[in-house]
Amino acid sequence: MRGIVYSRTAQKALVRMPRNWARRVRDKIRAYAADPAAQANNVTRLRGEDGLVRLRVGDWRVIMRDGTDLRILNVTSRGSAYQE
């Protein structure tokens, strides 16, 4: 299993969201870190950004950088996930 590093933005988002959804998001992140092939239908590489992927968990999107460690950059709702 690879290491998981949460950014400050991601940590704040997880604290603010409903507890049951935060638990589901953390479980999906752990499952992806343990076996990326298991979450293949929920993970998509983002165009224009090298190494960035998004994980879909219901109406929530997890933006992360996939490398030796899994860096969780942001957790946001579906509508505002791709705005800069």
Which helices and strands, and how do they pair?
Blueprint: E1 4-6, H1 8-16, H2 19-34, E2 43-45, E3 52-57, E4 60-66, E5 70-77
Parallel strand pairs: 1-5
Antiparallel strand pairs: 2-3, 3-4, 4-5
Nutshell version of this structure?
The protein is of the alpha+beta class. The protein has helices spanning 8-16, 19-34; strands at 4-6, 43-45, 52-57, 60-66, 70-77.
CATH topology: YaeB-like fold
Q: What topology, given as strand order, has the largest sheet?
A: 1-5-4-3-2
Q: List low-pLDDT spans.
A: none
Oligomeric state of the chains present here: single chain
Number of helices: 2
Spatial separation of the terminal alpha carbons? 31 Å
User: What does the main sheet amount to?
Assistant: 5 strands, mixed
Count every beta strand, where a strand is a DSSP E run of 2 or more residues.
5
CATH class: Alpha Beta
Percent helix range: 25-40%
Instruction: Give the total of domains.
Output: 1
- CATH superfamily placement: RelE-like
Shape: globular
Radius of gyration: 12 Å
Strand content: 25-35%
**Would you tell me the overall average pLDDT?**
88
Structural class: alpha+beta
Please write the string of helix (H) and strand (E) elements: EHHEEEE
Q: Return the CATH architecture.
A: 2-Layer Sandwich
Note the main attributes of this structure:
84 residues; alpha+beta; YaeB-like fold; 2 helices; globular
